[in-house]
Write a structure and sequence with these properties.
Rossmann fold; seven-stranded mixed β-sheet; single chain; Quinone Oxidoreductase, Chain A, domain 1; 2 domains; globular
Length: about 400
């Protein structure tokens, strides 16, 4: 996830005019680069037309389109997006790698990390009203399956994810179930609120193992890995070692609270982690990158009886030495996805109110949503922390 698409893979970002419309599902392919959005929303028949960015074809890139303004249905709210941010999942979709090919069915408006203002509510909405500022839980559970009914909505058997299975937040407006809208506390700026969802990922992953009094190693210093460095450093970890191949992000990890950083292109992290822990290995390893090499190194770095938390999303299948690195080590392994709904959100809210988390270094770039293609390339370069986009 460190390289963007080549110039031959770029897809234009144009606006669609009504006369040139060519419908593809619920959205339309952009054909006319001259049409512009000005003032109030234009209309296509009785439908208001809004700007959005979508994966319209099964190929690398992202395009700007005209889409019908969403209408909130039963127990849904319509949110005017103020700030949205770019996630590693979005970059998978942008690149159109093997994961994206298996999970995305174009056309789809992508994006799932955002904050904004509720401007309209659907029938029987009781917990929110127009004017409320909200962030969003991106995992939509069915509420009926075994997982949902036993408190594990984030791994619902019929799970739908905003920006993956339903249209997302790289748009002027997005509609979401009312239960997925999280009120933004007054002390949290809207920009920070737009990254609560990925911060929740870090909370879930960091506290999935007992980190108090142990050596923690974090492979991958993307925004969630950086957030994990901040969280573990204030939550009782003995040491926090951050590993990446990018010096820019390693410098950010140091600012976020890591006690040591390792550039794994220059130094073997497995050797270094064992040297720093008297030959034992790390008690807890958080694998946040999805790199096949880093995943293998994570298992070789963990001590006997230690825990490996797998959060990073590989682009394909991963080969492991299960005998030596899992069974004979009696290693504990846990996959982590999303956030525990809504336990993680309450925990995150309390952490933010405590003032202990230093999140200032995390947001490194601010752009307009119109520059989404530039933002994707920046994420691909690795020369950034969190990139936030004003809608």
């Amino acid at each position: 996830m460190h390289a963007g698409p080549s110039s031959s893979q770029k897809t234009g970002a144009w606006i669609l005019s009504e006369s040139d419309s060519r419908d593809v599902g619920k959205i339309s392919l952009p054909l006319n680069p001259a049409a512009k959005h000005k003032g109030t929303c234009p209309r296509r028949g009785n439908e208001e037309i809004v700007k959005a960015f979508a994966k319209v074809r099964p190929e690398p890139g992202i395009v700007q389109i005209d889409a019908n303004k969403p209408k909130p249905g039963y127990h849904e709210v319509l949110v005017k997006v103020r700030v949205t941010s770019v996630c590693g999942t979005d970059y998978h979709i942008y690149r159109w790698d093997e994961w994206a090919k298996a999970h995305i069915k174009p056309p789809r408006i992508i994006g799932h990390e955002f904050a904004g203002e509720i401007v309209e509510i659907g029938a029987d909405v009781t917990s929110h009203k127009p004017g409320d500022l909200v962030a969003a839980e991106s995992h939509i559970g069915c509420g009926k399956c075994y997982q949902c009914r036993t408190g594990n909505t984030h791994i619902c058997e019929q799970l739908a994810i905003i920006g993956v299975d339903v249209d997302g937040s790289f748009a002027e407006y997005v509609k979401i179930p009312e239960q997925n809208a999280w009120p933004i506390p007054q002390e949290v700026p809207v920009e920070t609120a737009s990254i609560l969802e990925p911060l929740g990922n870090a909370v879930h992953a960091s506290f999935a193992a007992d980190i108090a009094g142990t050596d923690v190693s974090i492979f991958g210093c993307g925004p969630v890995g950086l957030s994990a460095a901040a969280l573990t450093s204030v939550s009782g970890a003995l040491t926090v070692t951050a590993i990446d191949i990018n010096d820019y992000r390693l410098a950010l990890a140091k600012r976020m609270g890591a006690t040591k950083t390792i550039n794994s292109k220059a130094v073997d992290p497995v050797v270094e982690i064992h040297k720093d822990t008297n030959g034992r290995g790390a008690g807890v390893v958080l694998e946040m990158s999805g790199s096949e090499l880093a995943i293998r190194q994570a298992f070789k770095s963990v001590r006997n009886g230690g825990t490996v938390i797998l959060f990073g999303l590989p682009s394909g299948e991963v080969r492991l030495n299960v005998g030596d690195d899992l069974i004979f080590k009696e290693a504990h392994v846990r996959g982590v996805v999303g956030r525990e709904i809504f336990k993680t959100w309450y925990k995150l809210q309390d952490l933010l109110k405590s003032g202990k988390l230093n999140l200032a270094p995390l947001i490194t770039h601010r752009m307009s949503l119109d520059r989404l293609d530039d933002a994707m390339k920046l994420v691909g370069s690795g020369e950034c922390g969190k990139v936030v986009l004003a809608a």
